Amino acid sequence: MPTALTAPPGAPFVEVQNLPDDVLNYLLPSRYCESERCNDLATQIGQGSLLGYDQVAAIENWLRQNIAYRPGSVDRPISAMETYQQGYGVCRDLAHLGIALCRSLSIPARMVVGCLHQLQPMDLHAWFEAFVGGRWYTFDPTQAYTRGGYVAFAYGRDAADVAIYTQFGPPMFPQRQLVSVTQL
Questions:
Q1: Does the structural domain 16-156 have CATH classification 3.40.50.720?
Q2: Residues 41, 60, 78, CA angle at the centre, nearest 5°?
């Protein structure tokens, strides 16, 4: 079984006035993460959880149980609320909804894009991180459990900040993608 990432149940909520300056940006609504529209849902999901890590873990579990992960089902970025309404999405969409839910509870959250070892089907992958207990922790609602093997390429507020490439003109779809990782 792969090694799990650090998961500290009970890691405390960090009050906004005590957050590092570089984390504050991850509290704000963004293009695909309309956190101002999610407070009632986030409060309901996190009800009964300790403030902080346990709230985010409840959000991650709720996403796994209520929003279907369907690789290849969406070909353009959609917002957190669109994902909630349709009930399914790709990894990016589940990350957007997780981020928006966290931010609505004043928990900083950011999008991460990269690769996940042995992801099936193999492709670029997106997940989110939440800032609790004074540091960032990984959450991935698309996987049955969060394990090691994540390789981050970019961090941002949402998909608009972490685009691996930007295309101009008519759409072109690569026929093949090859990713290799060299261990130093």
A1: no
A2: 70
